[in-house]
Amino acid sequence: MVQATEFATLLVGVMQGLIIIALSPLIMGISRKVKARSQKRIGASITQPYYDLAKLMTIKEKIIPKDSSWIFEYAPWINFICISTTAFLIPVFLTYSPFGYAGDIFVLIGLFSLGKFFLILAAIDTGSMFGGIGGSREIMISAILEPFLFMAVFLASLTHGGTNISTIIGEAAASNAPVSPIILFAVIALVIMIIIETGRLPFDNPATNLELTMVHKAMIFEYAGKPLALLEWASYVKQLILFSIVINLISPWRIALSISPISITVGIAAYIGKVVLFAVLLTLLEVRVAKWRLFRIPDMIAMAVASLMIGMLLFYL
Amino acid sequence: MIIFYSIGAASSAILLPSRRQNQNNKYPALLLSYALAIIASSFAIILSLNVIVAHDTTRFSMHNVLPFINFEIKIDGIASFFIFIVGIVSLSVSIYSIGYSRISSNSYTDDDKNNKSNNKRKNTIATGSASFRFLFNIFILSMMFVIVSNNAFFFLFFWEIMSLASFFFVIQDGERNDNNLNLNSSLGYLVLTQVGTVFIIALFMVMFSQTGSFSFDSFAKSLSSSSSTAGTTTLQLSYIKNAAFILGFIGFGIKAGMVPFHAWIPRSYPLVPNNISALMTGAMINMAIYGMVRMMLDLNSVGPSSDHAWWGTVMIASGSVSAVIGVLYAIVSNDMKRTISFSSIENMGIIFIGLGLAVLFRAYGLTHLFELAIVASMLYTANHALFKSLLFMGAGSIESRTSTTNMEKLGGLAKNMPYTSRIFLIGSLAIAGLPPFNGFVSEWLTMQSLLFTSEIPSAILKISLGFASLAFALSLGISAAVFVKVFGISFLARARTNLSLYAKEVPKSMLFSKAFLALLCIILGVIPSIGINFISYAFDLKSTQLSIFGTVELQKNSTHNFASLSMPAIVAMLASFGAGAIGFLYLTGRKKRGIISKTTTTTTTKKITSSLPATEYSSSSPSSSSSPLSSSSSPSAPTWYAGYPNADSKNQYGAASFSQPIQVIFKILYRTKTNIIKTYHSETNPYLKKSIKIESVTTDVFEKYFYSSIIFVSIFTLDKIRRIQTGKINAYLLYIMITLVLLLVAVRLGL
Hints:
heterodimer; A: mainly alpha; B: 69% helix
């Protein structure tokens, strides 16, 4: 009996991770569709990212820039593995993740940075100036993003008593009160972080025709075939992981509190609904703004830090 | 028994090369002196393990070596922890030095195709010479003795030997750069380290005035806050303790390189031979931490009263400033060794943050949090010793093969030096604080200690500590950037000059020593319970021991699982997921092989139909831009340089351009001056440019404003004082007279 429930927990845990990995291209497809429609285009079908991935994955041959070393070959794999592993650490439609015990939110940040570290190295490794530009910008952004991520975690741990993601989400789900103002400050900061990390306007424009203005796409410029599929997929997964954390933090509405078929079904349905809603809202926000200069990102981050500081003052005073 | 042996071996190691002083560059002598150092450090490691595991404090004393002063040795848990670190570092550095000195002496007759300059040769003679080896052994030995001394007098004596030995290293390698700079920086080092010693002497004098003895035991006894004996009131005692803290903090802070006393670090580390810089940063700088810990926990112990809270606050403040300043200067430097030196300042800052938190928690009586913070900072100390000496040895390997550490001249080394590059990568990942390496574990613990400051009962302190954590997090973020730059620019892509194009891999002894440290970095990262248990044994902490593969778990209010970290589980997850992902992709890649044409055609038709009215493809542009490349059959293709066919290695992104965005953001610290010099083919036509040269100079703000003002003030006052020195006998007699009268008056008044 005990074994059966343990098995069920484990199964649900694996399911949570896989659902993120499997669903992530769809979310990307939806947000692209929304973007196209709001620009008065028809746009590709929402399943287009799946087709793209499938096509890239079937390409057998490897193309490696002649100046690069082993880093270039392994970086997409390391990046994909790091990011996908974190998908198992976070609660998705259940208030906790059975694997969440292994690591807290700092581990998640750490694994993201590990993947990013290798990605930037690979970008330098191509010997292309675009790779260097992209890498240099990416590391600058993530370096100045770090303090305010830490601050957001600080706030979340103060209000919800922990840095374990399962603890935070569990607490958020258990408290019936609407979102506390302190968490709201953290959420404002997190949303800004998501916009930056997922390479959206106004900070990064992956759809531009000029490599000089890109950040993330400039780094993966030399990739083709299977490694490119891995990189793309990893970026989709990363986006969905960040979405899930924020969604579950703001509104743990209808999240499954225990493992039973009904609650899980409701949980999954509610989760998908919320994620799609969030993605649509974020995309609508994105199409309203133009690209900013690179050096306005620090201003934005300063603003986010200020909002976090206000949140902290509110908590202590 | 063991201690005698270890000291004996080390001292014979000292004696031996000094006898052979005149036989330069004899390989057996070289091997012997380093072998003795290796044996000695292995014994030191065994000894320290013995003390820590058996929990018995070894004492040893010789009475009346000097009048009134006993030579006492005491090896307790704290001491043996630091002996262990010094032992590990000196063990691997000694192994490394065998190969390093050998390469250096060989390069005498070696091929000159890398156009090695004369400077290089002079430098290499120095590293192989007997006097060098003598100093090498003396240096390690003096550090060991600093740790074990239980007497202020001998502590200072060996502290001075240590400082002077390192000073000789700085100055002896002088021919490498221009002499003036070298003399300047070595004298700067001497001055700063001596000022630090003055503060430490003053610290011991203050303690001596309280106890009347130079023994550390008596310090600990009479300064512990519980006993206010010998007629001193508690108020006086607290004054003395505060004074001792300030003196010790400045004295040890200079040795640790805390901002603004950091100027000696980037000046001296890049100048000394690389094995010594590994020793200095891996071992010597830890002596400052040792002094701080000894003072805080033992001699001038922090009591559970909020009077001492400001000590912790001061330490955290200076630690945060050092962390940020150190890392910000590290990123703009384009010399590898200089960058790593600046990053040492950052790491010291983080260790001081941890120590400050420990002091703070103890002052407020939060014993469990005190233990958390002390474990965090000590684990960071050990990790820093490991990866920093690893990185310096890696830089040394590069320098010995390419004779430069300027990153703008390197590049592409990953192909020529495959093992060195992998080991260096491990070191970089560890210092950048990425899982699953050891740096991550200690940074995780420090972060958690910062989060737990919410337990401190003072609201203002809580808020300011929350803001201080911003500095900590910023330094972590930028340190990742620093090491992406160091590794990426110097090891990857295309060689920028011939220096790195023709580099060879280093000999096995150099690789082995680095691999040993890299292995320790991985082990301590994957199984953090080893390090944590080790420290809690050594410092005799009450917290429960972890099982080998256990989870580090922190709890608040004893109900919630506040945070947990199980690195073995994460590594297992990474590995299993990696295997799963590779298997999945392999399978999908194969299965789809039959229907490959079908899927592609459907997708393309879909794309075309769906995007006919659109202006652009909604799918990602790089995939389409790189698709022409996929048609080529060769596995390796040239990099795309925006259609420019004759791109050479200069078209790569360089070190300075890589860090340029961060330089722009924090420009207030750098005062960057950019000069653009254009030359034209003809004076009259400004459109045909012959060449454009851009110079960008960053200045150290502290050096410019802090030190120059101090130098100005001291020269000004010394100039005034010089007027007293008239050189006439009768004037001096007058001074003696005045002093005598003043003293008599003082005695009369009973001052």
